[in-house]
């Protein structure tokens, strides 16, 4: 397994580096996108030298990474001479809608929206109708035209997780529990699409439980896994979780069944607790998203859109029936074999200390 994981990391990292050396692929849409088409004229945009005001609406303050997203975005905004305002909805759709109204009242020029739910078409349309470009961030809104979407390839994440579980289990496969995120999240849905694709290709996989969990609830995820273990007499070889939040929630059940270090367990985000469990051998891997590059590119695009300038996406994707310009954020697997390298060379400063993970 160690040999597989080392090879997997080397392959992903090499592919990522090669991709970064190449220019963005041409798109059917001419590889460019303009500001919101709401009837606002260029004269309504801030004049040259005037500071752009960016509103950022995050789904939750509890998610560990958003603290770092905020710091990186603030630093980039200051570097580009822009002001930035943050709001956190704590997975309350009504609260997020009210917060966006508040940001509009403060005169924002562009909105970066990490939606509570992918079903917030009306909110996006309302913002764009007022001439304010919308960038969806780390989630998408199905059925709404937005000016830009910034996200990892979540289908790829799902494929990578389940394919890694297959390699861990060996050619005979085994019993697998899929511990998914919030059903209203496009992130969770697209990761699920990755699972479905791999499962269709590998009949040796036996999916014994397959469940979404509202608000990425660790408690609900724990109940799902407890039920699956009971129904299968603890005969489960892999637990594939869409994020660290739900992966960490199910660890007590895995330990109670004495499967820690024996069954495959993965997540996404490489939170401190997850990184520690990877070092201890309880978790097999977690997927890391290059948030530094993603955050910086988001703010660069926000400033351009706020000034009415065109942006150059990496590709155009069909999302909810619309052609959406997309900036893709790189992902990589973090395992015990590359955990030190990830912490020293890749994770943003302050994400974790050596003592927190290895102490």
From TrEMBL:
It comes from the Bacteria. Keywords: Signal. Its main location: other. Residues 1-19 form the signal peptide. Transmembrane segments: none annotated. It is found in: Cell envelope. This is Substrate-binding domain-containing protein.
């Amino acid at each position: 397994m160690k040999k597989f994981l080392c090879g997997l990391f080397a392959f992903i990292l090499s592919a990522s580096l090669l991709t970064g050396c190449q220019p963005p692929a041409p798109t059917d849409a001419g590889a460019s996108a303009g500001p919101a088409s709401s009837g606002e004229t260029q004269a309504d945009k801030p004049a040259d030298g005037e500071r752009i005001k960016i509103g950022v609406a995050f789904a939750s303050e509890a998610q560990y990474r958003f603290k770092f997203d905020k710091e990186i975005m603030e630093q980039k905004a200051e570097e580009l001479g822009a002001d930035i305002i943050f709001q956190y909805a704590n997975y309350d759709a009504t609260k997020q809608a009210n917060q966006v109204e508040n940001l509009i009242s403060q005169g924002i020029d562009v909105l970066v929206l990490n939606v509570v739910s992918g079903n917030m078409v009306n909110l996006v349309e309302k913002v764009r109708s007022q001439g304010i470009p919308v960038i969806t961030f780390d989630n998408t809104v199905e059925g709404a035209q937005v000016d830009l979407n910034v996200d990892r390839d979540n289908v790829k994440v799902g494929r990578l997780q389940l394919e890694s579980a297959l390699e861990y289990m060996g050619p005979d496969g085994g019993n697998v529990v899929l511990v998914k995120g919030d059903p209203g999240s496009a992130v969770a849905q697209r990761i699920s699409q990755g699972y479905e694709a791999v499962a269709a290709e590998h009949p040796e996989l036996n999916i014994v439980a397959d469940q979404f969990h509202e608000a990425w609830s660790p408690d609900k995820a724990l109940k799902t896994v407890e039920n699956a273990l009971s129904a299968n007499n603890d005969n489960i070889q892999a637990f594939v979780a869409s994020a660290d939040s739900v992966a960490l929630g199910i660890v007590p059940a895995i330990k109670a069944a004495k499967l820690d270090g024996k069954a495959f367990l993965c997540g996404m985000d490489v939170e401190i607790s997850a990184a520690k469990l990877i070092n201890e051998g309880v978790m097999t891997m977690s997927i890391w998203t290059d948030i530094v590059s993603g955050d910086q590119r988001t703010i660069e695009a926000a400033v351009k859109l706020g000034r009415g300038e065109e942006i150059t996406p990496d590709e155009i994707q069909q999302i909810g029936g619309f052609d959406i310009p997309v900036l893709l954020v790189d992902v990589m697997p973090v395992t015990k074999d590359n955990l030190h390298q990830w912490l020293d060379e890749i994770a943003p400063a302050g994400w974790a200390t050596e003592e927190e993970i290895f102490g």
